[in-house]
Amino acid sequence: MIGRSTDWLLAVAGGALLALMINYNSLLARHASPLHASWVAHGLGALVALLLVVGYARVVRRPGKEGERAKAPWWSYFGGVPGAFTVVLAAVTVNGGLALSGTIALTLAGQVVFGIVSDYFGLFGTPRRRIVAGDFLVAGSVLTGSALIIFGGA
Amino acid sequence: MIGYLFVAFFNGVVVGTSRATNGRLSSAVGPFKASLWNHVVGFLLLTVIIFLASDWHFAASPPWPAYLGGVFGALFVAVNSYVFPRLGAMNAALLAISGQMITAVLVDFLNQGVTPTVVRCLGVVIVLLGVYLSRVTNARRDKAEKDAGR
Fold first, then answer.
1. CB crowding A119-129: b at 16 or more within 10 Å, else e
2. Which residues from chain A sit within 8 angstroms of residue B59, using beta carbons?
3. Is B2 near chain A, with CB under 8 Å?
4. Which residues of chain A have pLDDT under 70?
5. Which value does ipTM take for this structure?
6. In this complex, is the C-beta atom of A99 within 8 Å of any C-beta atom belonging to chain B?
7. Prediction pTM value
8. Could you read off the pLDDT of B53-89 as tens digits, one per residue?
9. Which residues of B touch A130 (CB under 8 A)?
10. Can you tell me the distance from the alpha carbon of B98 to that of B90, in angstroms, rounded to the nearest whole number?
11. Contact (Cβ atoms closer than 8 angstroms) between residue A124 and residue A78
């Protein structure tokens, strides 16, 4: 169940995409409010995702695959709800005097703690995973390194 | 101030919830459809929020690259939703953070043309060390579970 090297590379590449997304979205937010910037980004993101869905269906034709995959639970369609609220909450903390750097650092820590708890209890239908001492070493390294990058000046 | 610290931390939990939910959808309908649902639902919700805040003014027109965020966002959600169920929540979060932080250093370097500080370079090295350790830790756990299952 633990993925192969390609999954690892993809996951890191995903993080690179995330950094680029944030870079361009903050450029947009300098010309509009964070709320409007996110609204526009979600709208365009929906169009791009639609193109990906249509393009993928054209390239890979696999008829009769219906019912092969597990059915999606109703709540799994609502990932966009917490996704949208993230923008609002980030705007609240940045405007509230917690600088952008502090906001990012704490949000990263929150993500990692969520990941550990989610793995342990198998939340949101993900497989349960044993937490070992090494996990804390990994989390500690990534968070320490991230803190140095965030607070280490540009 | 303490309140804002909590909100920022809680926001990380919200981010995790969104990614876990999209990951679950992805394993049923595929990563691209998961990304589509995420963006459509988020767009509708933000429309409602902007409407309720009656905040409809668009001032200056931004330069065109500002619109690229939506493109990278659609790709990010697809990639992250794909790897999430395969790697587990913690690995998915840590690896995304690693890629994000290292790219952020490169982006700042390219945007501003200033060499990164020694502290930042050290940060990159420690993040990479963490990625390497996660490979080692997971390979070891895999082996232990395999042995235990035998």
1. beeebbbbeeb
2. 31-32
3. no
4. 1-3, 62-69, 154
5. 0.91
6. no
7. 0.91
8. 876 666 668 889 999 999 999 999 999 999 999 999 9
9. 141, 145
10. 12
11. no
